[in-house]
Amino acid sequence: MQIDEIIRMQKGEITEHVIYSRLAQETRDSHNRKALLQIAKDELKHYGILKSVTKKEFQPDLLKIMWYSFLAKTLGFAFALKLMEGGEGRAQEDYLRLAKEFPQVKRIIYDEETHENELIGLIKEERLEYASAIVLGLNDALVELTGALAGLTLALQDATLVAVSGFMVGFAAALSMAASSYLSSREEAGVKSPLKSAVYTGTTYMLTVILLIAPYFILPDVYASLTTMLFTALSIIAAYTFYISVAKSQRFLSRFLEMATISLFVAAVSFLVGFAARTLFGIDV
Q1: Nearest C-alpha neighbor of 243 from the set 232, 233, 255, 231
Q2: Are residues 155 and 257 located together in one domain of the fold?
């Protein structure tokens, strides 16, 4: 193995030591802090092992530190750490090759494959504990609003009317979904707060509604708005599916295709219903 590759690995270890240490300082959860400090300690140990090979000191990557700190603050610790560890997982082959020349590197391999993954799995985060409530609001909003907006698009053929109608339908549905989430959460075991569950569901629903109706307020052509709305829906599905698949170590493609297929199918059926309503009732707006 070339010395440049070992240096890259050494820089990575000291960078991750700083990232974990900084995240430990920022979290208020004592459980999370303990887990993050243990990982930071391991990363510094790995840096020391590689230093014994290169005989050199290196500074951490400040841009990488800033990036993962930003991700942790905006999208959560679990997402940022799983994403970072996913990148490190690709370095296992490099460590295996290096261990043939330097047996002390085997300790790094052991930590990367077992200890760190176990610690990351222990990290508790509220937004993941209420992931089912978020999925409920997001999925229902995508399915119901893409269908409603597609039907209204053909029935009304006026972008502003479609947007206002969609907002009214979405707002009422968000309140209804929040109430349903509250009532169902009271019956579920393991849900800490039915009220928080309701807030996550209602808020997620309403934010999705705003994103979906936005094209109708911006674009004058109703069919351009419909196309943009469908693209927005697919983008939301892709973004959230990627987030959950990383944070919970789940498969991305199957979850994305399932949600996308359901939303587009409902939109297509609703579009046909809108066409039928316009034809049968002679709607001309």
Answers
A1: 255
A2: yes
